[in-house]
Amino acid sequence: MTEGNSTTVTDGGSADRLSRLEQEGEVAADYLEGLLDIADLDGDIDMDVEGERAAVSIVGESSSRDLNKLVGRDGEVLEALQELTRLAVHRETGDRSRLMLDIGGFRARKRTELALLGAKAADEAKGTGQPVKLDPMTPFERKVVHDAVAAAGLRSESEGEEPERRVVVLPV
After folding, report:
1. Is there a contact between 147 and 137 (Cβ–Cβ < 8 Å)?
2. Percent of the chain as helix, strand, coil, to the nearest 5
3. What's the confidence (pLDDT) of residue 64?
4. Pick the residue with more confidence: 61 or 44?
5. Closest CA to 32 of 21, 41, 23
6. Residue pLDDT, tens place only, 139-149
7. Which CATH number fits domain 109-170: 3.20.20.70, 2.40.240.10, 3.40.190.10, 3.30.1370.50?
8. Which residues contact 16 (CB under 8 A, 6 or more apart)?
């Protein structure tokens, strides 16, 4: 198991938060290692703290079909495993977790694609002066698009109800 830490500690409150997020990562890693053992699947666990949440990744060979099974079609299995892992963390710590799970780099690749989509939608909204409605997305996908739109200097909002909730990019 490899561990990383991308958070800088500046005060006691930050140290407490970092410690809590590291504990979430440890609990999640233990849970996921047990799951991999039960399913007889290969993968290493990488833990990190990104911003205000623990991030845990299952990594392995890039061509690993085992990891693809854990991602599922359009990340559906990954989303379910993330929720199960959050529940395991909650059961162990008593705290609600916002942990992010990635498997085989799926979320990292998806984040790049979505950032490009958000930038393209922002360009379209700037060019036409009209709102741009995107297809329905998961909360993770919407967050990435909102961030990309904000980086392009525009506003966006979510509209609709799950599972049809979508991002609307607003012109200036």
Report:
1. no
2. 55, 20, 25
3. 65
4. 44
5. 41
6. 889 999 999 99
7. 3.30.1370.50
8. none
pLDDT of residue 4: 42
Inform me whether the pLDDT recorded for 48 exceeds 50.
yes
Q: Give the chain's end-to-end CA distance (angstroms, integer).
A: 47
Tokens of 76: 């559906």
**132 and 118 Cβ atoms separated by less than 8 Å:** no
Task: Supply the CATH classification number for the domain 2-104.
Answer: 3.30.300.20
Task: Select from 54, 44, 42 the least CA-distant residue to 6.
Answer: 54
DSSP-derived secondary structure for 45-106: EEEEEETTEEEEEEE--TT-HHHHHHH-GGGHHHHHHHHHHHHHHHHHHSS----EEEETTH
**Cα torsion angle, 142, 148, 151, 152, sign:** negative
Pairing state between β 2-3 and 100-103: unpaired
In this prediction the pTM is 0.79
DSSP assignment, residue 18? H
Domain locations in the chain as residue ranges: 2-104, 109-170
